[in-house]
Amino acid sequence: xxxxxxxxxxxxxxxxxxxxxxxxxxxxxxxxxxxxxxxxxxxxxxxxxxxxxxxxxxxxxxxxxxxxxxxxxxxxxxxxxxxxxxxxxxxxxxxxxxxxxxxxxxxxxxxxxxxxxxxxxxxxxxxxxxxxxxxxxxxxxxxxxxxxxxxxxxxxxxxxxxxxxxxxxxxxxxxxxxxxxxxxxxxxxxxxxxxxxxxxx
Length: 201
Description:
Elements: H1 7-11, H2 15-18, H3 23-26, H4 33-42, E1 51-56, E2 59-65, H5 71-82, E3 93-95, E4 99-102, E5 130-133, E6 146-149, E7 162-168, H6 170-174, E8 194-197
Antiparallel strand pairs: 1-2, 1-8, 2-7, 3-4, 4-6, 5-6, 5-7
């Protein structure tokens, strides 16, 4: 069962026949257009083109993006998501009660995609569920790394580019493995299983 099954073939598979198929093989089984539409609509987002599904070990997290407030960041995030850049990346820095950070291909907080973004600071507050860009001292150094706030963080307002908000599944963000020490470095960190633009589902 190494090849992707055609939709006509999957229709002929009974539950008993699919029950013992390995998880990786199940992912290769095609789904009908009707089923795909149901999955897409189940996320109940305002704009599927500007919403993401972040798959974590415990469940799906929906992030609705703000293209009006941070157009260039949203555009770049979607490019990276659609290229599969984030799939498998670690939550390398997680501080309980503060935030969970990811998006570094090196898993250390020192890497990125190689394309720096000019800051788009806006009036959106850093609160529980806010998704914002990480950066170095240079305000225009944001690249691919971002963080999700666990609590209200007003001292970050106007200092980092807010580009989205978790609208469902925040409990799964809460379950991400926490780090230790002042920097929140995580040993054997959790990872992003996948990120997808809802319109692409």
